[in-house]
Amino acid sequence: MARIPDGRLQGAVALGLVAAATLVAAGCASRPSCDLGRKDLAEIRGIAYEYVAAWLANDRNAVMATLTEDPVLIPSGTEPIAGRSAVEAFWWPASGPRTTVNSYTSTIDEIDGSGSMAYVRGHADLEFTLQRDGGAAERQRTRSVFLMIVRRGRDGDWRIARRIWTTL
User: Fold this and answer.
1) CA distances from 89 to 65, 66, 77, 95, 128 (A)
2) Would you say 88 and 69 are in contact if contact means Cβ atoms under 8 Å apart?
3) What is the block-wise mean pLDDT of the chain (168 residues), using blocks of 10 residues?
4) Closest by CA position to 113, among listed 50, 52, 63, 45
């Protein structure tokens, strides 16, 4: 799990991860389409929380580490952004403002999948500050719904292959 600056938050995330994975596994057992085991469900939930923790830490490398080698983003109102270099250029443009994530909460509403592919559906609330050269800091907040497609790699680790979101 990515390191979160506040140790108490890290403990809360870990405790929440265990509790939520147990609940999801129990709910998934009643659906015939979901053949993921408890370990997979916990790992999938874990990569979703690592993604959030990486943004909270404002750690570019940690965010990118949660993605597959061929990620695709589909943000609200834009064409798909494909490939690691395109994703990095979108999130951290060379000539863009400095962005600091202040808070990010993500609620997982559903996890389902089969074999080495799964999806995570949920809601997110993101607050960040934009600092343009010489300008005043601009605080912004977005609420969104998201869908992530996750894939198990050859190393056995789950990573985010696709992330789709729309702003509410």
Assistant:
1) 15, 16, 17, 10, 18
2) no
3) 42 44 47 76 97 97 98 96 97 89 97 96 96 84 97 96 97
4) 45
